[in-house]
Amino acid sequence: MLCKDITPDTFVTDIVNHIVTEELSDVILVGHSLGGISITGAADRIPDHISHLVYLDGAIVESGQSVFSTMPPDIVAARRKLVAEEGRGIFMPGTYSVRKPAFSMRIVR
């Protein structure tokens, strides 16, 4: 499913279609990171269905802007290079690694 045809508008449309199809109202949308763009777009299209938007470390851009237009040029260049070299020109590969947790949990029943 991952391809160059998937854009932020794809996510906005999916959210809008779900809300409208399920006949939801007073919806609270939460957007994390780039999800902030998706919830903003959905709220713009169907404001009567949305009661609140919650941005959890989310991207907020003005109309006509991209996330890259809000970043310093050197960061944009580094991210574009990473996508080209490691993301098959499509996606941003993870820049973190999974480490062994510093603690462990045990569930006792």
Give me some keywords for this one.
109 residues; alpha+beta; two-stranded parallel ribbon; disordered C terminus
Describe, in plain words, how this protein is organized in 3D.
The chain has 109 residues and is α+β, with helices and mostly antiparallel strands. The chain contains three helices and two strands, in the order H-E-H-E-H. Strands 1-2 form a two-stranded parallel ribbon. Helix 2 links the parallel strand 1 and strand 2 (50-56). The chain is elongated. The chain starts with 7 loop residues before the first helix and ends in a 23-residue tail after the last helix.
Helix content: 25-40%
Topology order in helix (H) and strand (E) letters = HEHEH
Note the overall shape.
elongated
Spatial sequence of strands, sheet with the most strands: 1-2
**Uncertain segments:** 95-109
Mean pLDDT value: 81
Radius of gyration, rounded? 18 Å
Supply the helix-strand structural class: alpha+beta
Sketch the major β-sheet. 2 strands, parallel
Beta-strand percentage range: 5-15%
- The rounded distance between the terminal residues' Cα atoms is 41 Å
Count of DSSP helices?
3
In total, the number of strands is 2
